[in-house]
Design goal:
Blueprint: H1 2-11, H2 18-28, H3 37-70
């Protein structure tokens, strides 16, 4: 039981609040369109991947920029 709780916590460590993600998605969808739960989860996971991509790109850019300044 304790092991399952650890796995659950680690798998959700980067999850965003689904209500917030859904609110953003809902604002850009045409009126009257409803999303099933699987779609909401997919949007939330895609948002996490996008944020991780932005973060990684920022770090790489910062390292390259810092390296260029030192030369």
């Amino acid at each position: 039981s304790n092991n399952n709780e650890k796995n659950k916590d680690s798998s959700n460590a980067y999850d965003l609040p689904r209500a917030n993600v859904y609110r953003i998605v809902k604002n850009v969808l045409p009126e009257g369109i409803l999303l099933v739960n699987d779609a909401k989860i997919a949007f939330a996971k895609a948002a996490v991947v996008f944020i991780m991509y932005l973060t990684a790109t920022y770090v790489i850019t910062l390292v390259v920029f810092t390296h260029c300044l030192q030369q």
